[in-house]
Description:
- The chain is an alpha/beta fold and about 325 residues long.
- It has 2 domains: about 1-195, Rossmann fold (3-Layer(aba) Sandwich), CATH 3.40.50; about 220-315, Rossmann fold.
- It has 8 helices and 17 strands.
- It has helices spanning about 40-45, 70-85, 100-115, 135-145, 210-215, 235-240, 260-275, 305-315; strands at about 1-5, 10-20, 25, 35, 55-65, 90-95, 120, 155-160, 160-165, 170, 180, 190, 195, 220-225, 245-255, 275-280, 300.
- A 9-stranded mixed β-sheet has the order 1-5-2-6-7-8-9-12-13. Strands 14-15-16-17 form a 4-stranded parallel β-sheet, with helices on both faces.
- β10 and β11 form a beta hairpin.
- α2 crosses α3 (about 100-115).
- The longest helix is centred in the first third of the chain and has 15 residues, at about 70-85.
- The structure holds aspartic acid.
- Aspartic acid (ASP) binds next to loops.
Amino acid sequence: MTHSSSSGTRRVVVLGTGGTIAGKAASSGDNIGYTAGQVAVADLLGGIEAPAGVTLVAEQVAQLDSKDMDAHTWRELAARCAHWLAQPDVAGIVITHGTDTLEETAFFLHDVLAPAKPVVLTCAMRPATALSPDGPQNVRDALAVASTPGAQGVTVVCAGTIHSGLDVQKVHTYRLDAFASGDAGPVGYVEEGEVRRVRAWPQGAPFDAARLEAVSKPWPRVEIVMSHAGASGAIVEALLLPSAEPLRGLVVATTGNGTVHHALEAAALKAQDGGLVVLRATRCANGRILPKPGDGLRDAGALTPVKARVALVLELLGVAALPESEGG
Ligand code: ASP
């Protein structure tokens, strides 16, 4: 379903996927007991003024709680982004999304599209029915970014801050300012509809249809296991049992600078010797794994375990890695 509201010659397309921003609760005082993904994206735009000279187009791509995000929706979203980005009069795209897996979707879109125009994900921590919802201001700020000349790449806008889709992480369960960019820091801020940028936009690249085509193939199964006090190799052994969908890749969420409990490490090394692709990603919120001589398992640098999983799926699909952020 596509819906448009007109005020100018450049278009910004708003793709709805659900989330708390489209959530409804029984009472306006309830900020947590709501159902996500209830309000149509066209309705989320009601009362929000389009930036000067911009026509808004609303399209519902999905309507889900982003904790349930899946490969099918990601493919669909990437395809709709590619479609709209190819239209010469489209300045940029805003995606309304739940906060729970927003960083994974942003990282996926960055890797698959690396758009030369802005693709801006936004969200809310309070449902649309809240006494004081944060969604409308976040959408307004995201529209400002998507229509800013020269903006590019995948970004996330929440609580007035612009994060790179590569670096962003959800860091709070409840506060409105729930996202951070780690050591890399934010790309900038939105203040009264104006973008104040403090570092470069995420890198864009010419559209590569082969990347989009590659993600339309069936996805390899890649799981995440965590290293922790008292860890064992039992989960790895269980994951390797015969299955209709055999395991192809494993991300080990490591302690500290890529360290893994010796029992889990032994099982992971054995699995790697048997042909499984294994990647270490730190469970620390900030920093990157600094490789050292003798490391038996590859590391994912600054990628968090959930982003490392996306990176490994894409690698197994033959989608080459893009340059990494300097942050972490
Ligand atoms: N569970 C919700 C979602 O990710 C949380 C949110 O949007 O804040 O869709």
